[in-house]
């Protein structure tokens, strides 16, 4: 299907020279509308979340996979054109484009249901341009149908923060009615906490942000303390969302016997030495979280709708994308940061 009529030149932001936020790694760009391939959807972006992964890419913690990439992988948009092979969507549909952009589908990981580990996997806003722009292209098979009735800015954080938080919660092996510790309380954590609470867990939040501690208590957490505090009771499971390796031994020490710590970030500062007897004995488990599968996405979006998840957002116009990244770096964002074009 041919694209709807629209501007010949579209605005956005690209990472030209990765470095500290203060150095201005985001550069404004104006480009022709992207062309969808046979399996693609061309989207008019309604909203795009600002994820900590975008910050890692801008600052160079994640080496760029291509020059001058437009970041952003929590994309809510309207389909304006479809590739010739696309049958799932049509013009006017609202869809979500997420971090996992594509996989090979044939490797042993894909065939075993672990497509998040596919060696040939590619990612939105890293291997291809993302949603810090007025338009974006996503693969139809990796897009999610989204409801027309919801505010686009409230849907955007679900597409990475929500999905990754959901996978991290499952990786933490939280037992029914268990005690969960959450270290760091930003976009992903405030959504994962609500899923855990809806499933009957007791949640303890540990974070350096006083504002985030207030939000944690408002959402129903049993306690909220500083990141390095000891929770009021031993934990069955914990999730580390803060990209701070120093917190790994802190969280491990807070676990009860046979507890599991899941590290949710794509980037983490160095972990200090661990002592076997102090941190790992009594069958404590330490595991990582790598991307997500599409099944994770489908399960989480259905869960979010079922429990009526509350999404707390800080809105920024697309023109203020550098400010949104700077606020994220300084922990000034309340909930999730979301960009809105136009």
TrEMBL record:
<keyword id="KW-0560">Oxidoreductase</keyword>
<dbReference type="GO" id="GO:0008270">
    <property type="term" value="F:zinc ion binding"/>
</dbReference>
<dbReference type="InterPro" id="IPR002328">
    <property type="entry name" value="ADH_Zn_CS"/>
</dbReference>
<dbReference type="InterPro" id="IPR020843">
    <property type="entry name" value="ER"/>
</dbReference>
<comment type="similarity">
    <text>Belongs to the zinc-containing alcohol dehydrogenase family.</text>
</comment>
<protein>
    <recommendedName>
        <fullName>Probable alcohol dehydrogenase AdhA</fullName>
        <ecNumber>1.1.1.1</ecNumber>
    </recommendedName>
</protein>
<dbReference type="GO" id="GO:0005737">
    <property type="term" value="C:cytoplasm"/>
</dbReference>
<dbReference type="InterPro" id="IPR014187">
    <property type="entry name" value="ADH_Zn_typ-2"/>
</dbReference>
<dbReference type="InterPro" id="IPR036291">
    <property type="entry name" value="NAD(P)-bd_dom_sf"/>
</dbReference>
<dbReference type="GO" id="GO:0004022">
    <property type="term" value="F:alcohol dehydrogenase (NAD+) activity"/>
</dbReference>
<feature type="domain" description="Enoyl reductase (ER)">
    <location>
        <begin position="19"/>
        <end position="339"/>
    </location>
</feature>
<dbReference type="Pfam" id="PF08240">
    <property type="entry name" value="ADH_N"/>
</dbReference>
<dbReference type="InterPro" id="IPR013154">
    <property type="entry name" value="ADH-like_N"/>
</dbReference>
<keyword id="KW-0520">NAD</keyword>
<keyword id="KW-0862">Zinc</keyword>
<feature type="region of interest" description="Disordered">
    <location>
        <begin position="1"/>
        <end position="37"/>
    </location>
</feature>
<keyword id="KW-0479">Metal-binding</keyword>
<dbReference type="InterPro" id="IPR011032">
    <property type="entry name" value="GroES-like_sf"/>
</dbReference>
